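SAMPLE LOG
Freezer: B-3
Tube label: C17
Construct: single chain, 265 aa
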Amino acid sequence: MQGLKMVLNMIDLTTLEGKDTPGKVKQMCYKAQHLHDSYPDLPPVAAVCVYPSMVGIARKELKDSIVKIASVSTAFPSGQAPMSVKLEDTRFAVSEGADEIDMVISRGKFLAGEHNFVFDEIAAIKEACGKARLKVILETGELSTLDNVRRASDIAIHAGADFIKTSTGKIQPAATMQVTYTMLMAIRDHYDRTGKMVGMKPAGGISTSKLALHNLVMVKEVLGEQWLTNEWFRFGASSLANDVLMQILKTETGNYQSPDYFSID
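STRUCTURE (predicted):
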């Protein structure tokens, strides 16, 4: 039960679709604060994650809440835009009230060996974030090898990332255990050298409580208990919360739950 509630408190409840509407974002913000009205002792999720155009709406809905507002930027999910557009995208999201920015790296530049370009891009976006925390999305499903995942993780960390994140959720495979482990090792090695903590966010494909708990065990074994808070570890998910709620209510009541008992968004 402790693990399940910890997972809930680490979720970035996410909607990143072209069909997103203000109403959907408002509903998600309500759910972020009221996961199940019959069980008021449940923790809220860590954050909601939306497009920059929806940040202002989320800010109004969450104005008195501890739930953070995250926004994707830098021409998410492709990253195929000029640097000026990526910077403006980021500054707009921050000006609308985003607490956190989830940027995508230029995978084409990385795979072409232009690692300095990727480093400079991340550093520039970090500066544009101001006080907002920066999560750097590697899109590991497009990086082909674990060696590339490790190299991209190291570049992002040294360029100033507050978090490194596996995926946009648009490409498969996404947050596999092997990829997450590789990224956790990059964080651990950096911490061993510098004493500076960097956060981790697996995203995409983690939709069950069992897999989420597997990830928490791996984080504890590789990085230690100090990473087991939503300040340093997140799940990027849209459907995980409902599965965790089903498991919690099964444990509390002894009765198996149906997805029909919970709001989709």
